[in-house]
Amino acid sequence: MLDCAIIGGGPAGLTAGLYATRGGLKNVTMFEMGAPGGQITQSSEIENYPGVFREGMTGMDLMEPWPNQCMHFGLKHEMKEVKRVTKEGENFTLHLDNGDTVEAMTVVFATGSTPRRAGFDGEEEFFGKGVSTCATCDGFFYKGKETAVLGGGDTALEEALYLANICSKVYLIHRRDTFRAAPPTVERVMKNDKIELVLNASIDKAFGGPMGLDGLEIAFKDGSKRTLNVPGVFVFVGNNVNNHVLRQADGSYLCATNDNGEVIVDLKMHTDVEGLFAAGDVRVDAAKQVVCAASDGAIAGMQALDYVLERQ
Fold first, then answer.
1. Which of 25, 127, 153, 219 is 20 to 30 A distant from 230 in Cα terms?
2. Domains of the chain by range and CATH?
3. pLDDT tens digit string along 30-85?
């Protein structure tokens, strides 16, 4: 019987393990199929994690020491895939891909979410080299330059406004002529003279060279074309929440989720199921920043510790 099972090995999962084990739990296992670190390991440059800034730091550089630190205090890493989590009575059962099961008193769910790809030519080729899904992370690299944003929802428009404070110009590309974002956000975009709307349009191709993105080829619904010579484009066409582990045999979820499949938690990362905590990008209203995911993980780890101690 595990004191705590952690599902996911990104910043949230690792930090939950650190706080739970350093707080005194002796039997804590993190289930992560690959090397721990999470999505941030794919980032080519990190400048906004407090206290560890250095020129040229990559996401891999940032995360490299985390597993050793966490495991120093007793966190175990199992490279096994959790297919489903169920609960009968007080304890949880983790159903693994090899058919085995593991019992746990508490579970910290930290599987994150995956930004959706738009599917245009060159998107994968230039991802991390001009194509990004995080303006807060990467917008500063385009200070004083022209950039583009793809999308028409709240996130896309909010990030376009954020970029307009940094960049000389922002092209907001949307496949329709109306937006799905909240009316006040749309109004702010319309009034911002640094944002140019490129409507009824989609990105046909991203092009560039070894140094990164050089521009975008835009296709309009009327058949016309346009080239935008921008070094960066931010894609906001939604996220796929990695919540399949919570899905039960009858199709329901183990705990409450919102319409987007994000796990509903309170400020202490509690779900509506006793002993189940969620942290990081898988939860509602996540900021999708490493420092925030680590904070979530610390809270979840401490709450799991308290929960176990109360049951002893």
1. 153
2. 2-115+239-311 (3.50.50.60), 131-235 (3.50.50.60)
3. 999 988 998 888 676 777 888 877 776 778 899 999 999 999 999 999 999 999 99
> Order of strands, edge to edge, in the sheet holding 201-209?
201-209, 212-220, 225-228
Active site annotation includes 137:
yes
Identify which of 212, 158, 180, 8 has the alpha carbon closest to the alpha carbon of residue 94: 8
Annotated active-site residue in 4, 70, 138, 255: 138
Candidate list 134, 154, 214, 292, residue with the active-site label: 134
Residues 6+ apart with CB under 8 A from 159: 135, 136, 139, 149, 234, 236
| Contact assessment for residue 47 and residue 138, using Cβ atoms and an 8 Å cutoff | no
Q: Rounded CA gap, 93 and 84, in Å?
A: 8
Entry pTM:
0.78
Q: In whole angstroms, give the CA distance from residue 172 to residue 199.
A: 8
134 annotated active-site:
yes
